[in-house]
Amino acid sequence: MTDRVRKIYDRLIAREYRNLRSDAEYDFAAEFAAAGLPLETRAGLRLLRLAEAERAVMFPGDRIGFLRTVKRVPPLQTAAEWETIHKTRFVFDGAQVGNISSDYEYTLNVGLETRRAEIVERLKGVQEGGKAFHLLNAMLTSIEAVYVVADKYRAAAERAGARELAAALGNVPRKGAGGFYEALVFFRILNFALWLNGNKHNTVGRFDVYMRPFYDKDIETGKLTRAAALDLLEEFFISLNFDADLYPGVQQGDNGQSLVLGGMGADGGEVFNGLSRLCLEASLELKLIDPKINLRVNKGTPDEVYRLGTELTKQGLGFPQYSNDDVVIPALTRWGYEERDARDYVVAACWEFIIPKVAMDIPNIDALNFPDIANRVIRDKLAAGGNFDEITEGVKAAITADVARIAESVKNIFVEPSPFQSVLMRDCVRDARDVSEGAKYNNYGIHGAGISNAADALAAVQRTVFEDKTAAPDELLAALDADFAGYEKLRGKLLAAPKMGDNDDCADGLGCMLADAFADACAGLKNERGGIFRPGTGTAMYYIWFSERLPATADGRKRGEPFSANYSPSLSARSKGVLSVIQSFTKPDLQRVCNGGPLTLEFHDTVFRNGEGTQKVAALVKAFIARGGHQMQLNAVSRAALLDAQKHPEKHRGLIVRVWGWSGYFNELDIAYQNHIIKRLEFTA
Amino acid sequence: MTEGTIFSIEEFAVFDGPGIRTAVFFKGCPLRCNWCHNPEGLERAPQVVRNPNGCLACGKCAPLLGAGKTAAEDDLCVCPRGLLRISGAAYTSGALAARLLKNADILNANGGGVTFSGGECLMQAGFLEETLERLRGKVHTAAQTSGFAEAGAFDRVIRKTDLVMFDLKVMDRALSKKYTGQYNDLILENFAALKASAAPFIARAPLIPGVTDTEENYGAILAAVKGSRALRVELLPYNKMAGGKYKLAGRKFEPMFDEGVAPRIDTGLFERNGIEASVY
Fold first, then answer.
1. pLDDT, tens digit (0-9, with 9 covering 90-100), for B100-124
2. Distance of CA B110 to the CA centre of its chain
């Protein structure tokens, strides 16, 4: 890290720049409603007004800049308007467009003026006063808003004598970027504007694809050295963290700024390149939670990529997360994505596989509660004297019913228009259609929470009730009712039964059954936008939310105890070890449940104490990929450090942990999430 | 079929031989090294151990813990946090080999294999030999030993394993007795036999501050290894984690050395003499 970047980094950590934000609160909704403005128009106008309210804040040495001074993005609609919507429509995650991936490639190359000209041209054939008319005009207003902010920074840069930035802002965002530096500045402007526009989970996408031509050209022509490029890239990465406290999410850090490196390109070749390496190096030096690094790998990925990735894992950031092209691309094409689009997949906020530029998939629309389903069926069938086959058949039927219920519950969806995000999509101008209303792909994804807990519960019933007959059905039901109070011995037997992760065909077979039943239940279902439902193995926050309401379950889990996060062994499974876990979790046909959701492995940080340990972790990741694993995420943690951080948060301000699909500062997490991470580690030390 | 007692099977043991390996820890050890970081491995008989992480100190496990005591799996549920387990499971050589071979494809694909450790794996030499025979040709094997074993058994085992990882701890006879509980004559005789054999081997030296990291001890290790077929020397610096497991095994950790001092790491001594040395 250069001294210049170090100063910017120190400023981020000290956080004093946040005191420069304005306390002014804005509320335009009543005025907008009174004027009877369409939502598209309101969105464009809101962005323009917030842009006008923004103040340019520059510090000496800044070459990229852009800091938020407006704290809150006000709503487009009044409380009364929202009430009507909530009564009549399905509202998902605040109804904001987000968790998609923009067409940065095109925008960075041609500039917003070209986009503007396309919109003006498109307006010619549109009826005045109609929906398309309002949308296209709102797109123009949004572009204007971006210019307002950029021009403020240009003026500030001139005043501050930051000639390089001033010159860059004379070019971007109006024109296409003239080099790597301008492309970074341009991206930062777009990123800043998306957040100010109220979009959520703004992903970074295939950075080493769309930035590469700028980088390569500057390196080839000698305009930039590698060291100079690293210096800029590090400032750029830091800039993505400056306002992270303002970005909405379930917990701070859950903001979706996922950056994808490597993997198969749209034309079939390998993407991993010099810029990919530079990104890994920058992330390694900075150790910040944004951007969150994802590595795409496949059969042909050289060992170097795994080695570099593991060096990053060693830092304890909880990334990179790996995804396997050899599983994901065929899964996506089977689901109807075109081959070129599938090859171009990126990772959404957490782990969902989405397509940049052209997709308005909602990959996290709801979650299936596997443990609840297993529990309901186990209880019903045991009470009725059923056998184990009836239980498994009952579980399949209940999965089908729950998926159908979810599919029904997400109909009549309402998403607020987002003209600026639409400007950044490939086809929205051409189609004069806001991205909120759909794009080329409109599939929904359903998470599958707690698959291992459910498989374990079924395996425990099979083992104790039906095979060994060491537990009578009535006794098990009574124990579950009593939350195991007075039934400690029975609970011991349930805990000792085979678990998914033991490489035991009984529990793993049940895991396969659950995954297949989920896939079968989704197959053939259509959403109202003509898209499909994609089953997955992620949990998002449902591993906490669902578990809080679920009573004791037959895997030995007590009332309220959390499920495993994502696609991982349950917290009570005393695993035989990572090799068995890898074997177990690669048995299901993961192409069928490929919405996203990684196997998570925790390693004690001492594993990384020398190069040999690091190399072996890299080999292990490769082994998982070779066996057909779809996605993997590794953590290097010390349980002792986390416990100490709970007692002395002031000593661990920089401690970063992986939560579900994202990394955050340990100190900033709710206690339930902190405790879950500590619990996960009990068997690793 | 011979039965043995295993206290742990660790998949993905990173510092116990080449590649991705599974390490098998045999229960029971004839030495009492003062710095032992695997106190679970000392007693030959199974025992109840308690994971101290998350312990509520409710005392319900007291009747189960302690030397010479044992328990049935069913008794372990007295712990409300599920922190008790029985350390020491009986395996036949067939069952152990089958368990290990379940991961053979991952191990073989990554230049790895299985490492037998302990405790002292040679304390159950017959069981070890049988298991090695069952694994021969299917997966790479390594045996970690202190060398404190009956000479005949030692000779048979080094012929049946693909790699020997031999500990050279305290080279001085009297100090060996003081710090490990045993004179080292047998150990040095077996090391001489190993050098004279065809078995590939690595010499491993735990670095204990003031005990094994002295100039004299380093010099004696170098003298023992120099000119031999040793593939390399592995230096294992003492780390403070060692004491952490004593509570688990219901033992007291009473180091006769200063834990606060970092051991002296001298790879150069070996390298100058043409011997590869690495630090773990």
1. 999 999 999 999 999 999 999 999 9
2. 23
Q: What is the pTM of this model?
A: 0.92
* Cα atoms found within 13 Å of the Cα of residue A314, Cβ hemisphere only: 24
Put simply, the answer to whether B106 touches A583 (Cβ < 8 Å) is: yes
Question: Residue B74: closest CA among chain A residues belongs to which residue?
Answer: A489
Same domain, residue pair A29 and A170: yes
Among the three residues A536, A559, A590, which one is the final residue of a domain in this structure? Answer: A590
**What does the pLDDT look like over A454-499, one tens digit per residue?**
999 999 999 999 999 999 999 999 999 999 999 999 998 999 999 9
| Residue after which a domain boundary falls, among A573, A590, A607 | A590
Residue A278's domain spans which residues?
Answer: 204-209+237-347+598-685
What's the complex ipTM? 0.88
The answer to whether residue A224 is domain-embedded is: no
- Residues A679 and A570 sit within 8 Å (Cβ to Cβ): no
Q: Cβ of B74 and A489 within 8 Å?
A: yes
Dihedral angle sign, alpha carbons of residues A626, A627, A633, A639: negative
Q: Which one of A489, A578, A579, A607 makes the best mutation probe of the B interface by having the most chain B beta carbons within 10 Å?
A: A579
Nearest CA-CA distance, residue A640 and chain B, Å: 10
Taken in order of first residue, the domains within chain B and their CATH numbers are 7-46+93-279 (3.20.20.70), 47-87 (no CATH)
The 3-state DSSP composition of chain B as helix, strand, coil percent (nearest 5) reads 35, 20, 45
Query: What distance in Å separates the CA atoms of residue A683 and residue A673, rounded to the nearest whole number?
Result: 18
A665: its two tokens: 């500062």
Instruction: Confirm if B91 and B1 have CB atoms less than 8 A apart.
Output: no
Enter the tokens of residue A191.
Answer: 């990123």
Residue from A499, A616, A624 whose CB has the most chain B CBs within 10 Å, to mutate: A616
Q: Are residues A392 and A325 in the same domain?
A: no
